[in-house]
Amino acid sequence: YRAKSTRGRVARYRVEDDPHGRDRLQTLEALRAALTRGELVCHYQPKVTLSDGAVRSVEALVRWQHPDRGLLTPDTFLPLAEQTGLMRPLTLAVLDQSLRQLRTWRDQGRTLSVAVNLSVTNLLDTDLPDDVARLLQAHDVPPSALVLEITESVLMADSRRAGSVVDTLRSLGVGLSIDDYGTGYSSLSYLQDLPVDELKLDRAFVGRLVADPRSAAIVRSTVDLAHSLGLRLVAEGVEDAATLDLLRGYGCDVSQGYHHSRPLPADRLEAWLDARGRSRPAPRRHDAPPV
Ligand code: C2E
Ligand code: MG
Ligand code: MG
Ligand code: MG
Description:
Elements: H1 22-37, E1 40-49, E2 55-66, E3 70-72, H2 78-83, H3 87-107, E4 113-117, H4 120-123, H5 128-138, E5 146-151, H6 152-157, H7 159-172, E6 175-181, E7 198-201, H8 203-206, H9 213-228, E8 232-235, H10 241-250, E9 254-255, H11 266-279
Parallel strand pairs: 2-4, 4-5, 5-6, 6-7, 7-8, 8-9
Antiparallel strand pairs: 1-2, 1-9, 2-3
Helix pairs in contact: 3-5, 5-7
This protein binds ligand C2E and magnesium ion (3 copies).
Residues 45, 61-62, 73-75, 78, 91, 94, 117-119, 149, 179-180, 203, 236-239, 257-258, 263 line the site of ligand C2E.
């Protein structure tokens, strides 16, 4: 395989750069096999509530533990899964794994919820709500402990069908979040109708917050917009303390990014949570309300 470059430990081979080659077929077969062999693993990145520093939720981010190529990030295999009908089994595998993990954490007394990303094809799949309901039940997880992150592109692909899948998911009682908010084309129109709980402002805005007053203005007004609509605002891609301080000043609710933690395998996330619990002062009894 031609690795495009090898920055760090993650190979940057991109399947979509090689649309007809043998690599693609081999990778497709390998991905199919990976799904049955359990080579797809979830890493988890904490979402930090800014009012009290608590971690109430983690986002599951899929990786492929490839036998030869090492740990692959989703950009290297999600496009292929999307094009070849493997997105449904992939999403079911991620939901199954992350809900099982959440059950374990809750049994350990960790009152977390988990966020799972959905793709375009998932939201056009009218069987998805039944699948979600079945998996929640199988792992004995309450619907309120699952958040589904959907992107704006999903909603534009076929908004009637996607809208009905979203409504059905909503009626199960799962939380809904709009991911990469601000990068799509119709950011405002669907906010009128969509029953979501959370906006995740794309890291393109968050990353430039400190250096660029225009980005700062966008972030500030998006916080206000979210709050006017009764939604939580999550900032993604928070990489330093200066950015975090500004976000706090703007009234942002939740922060996620390398500044807090990279996505981690489940056992390392547990260690991170435990270390953080020891170093943070115990919250006072009458502290800020939960987010
Ligand atoms: P996303 O859902 O917007 O997730 C955030 C991405 O930004 C993750 O990349 C995360 O590792 C990265 N990130 C987090 N904090 C920082 C930061 O401070 N700085 C920078 N530069 N990056 C940060 P990842 O894990 O490579 O995932 C990329 C995208 O792939 C995700 O974007 C999501 O759209 C998709 N994805 C990941 N897992 C799944 C999955 O299980 N199912 C589906 N359908 N899509 C997934
Ligand atoms: Mg996401
Ligand atoms: Mg995002
Ligand atoms: Mg993203």
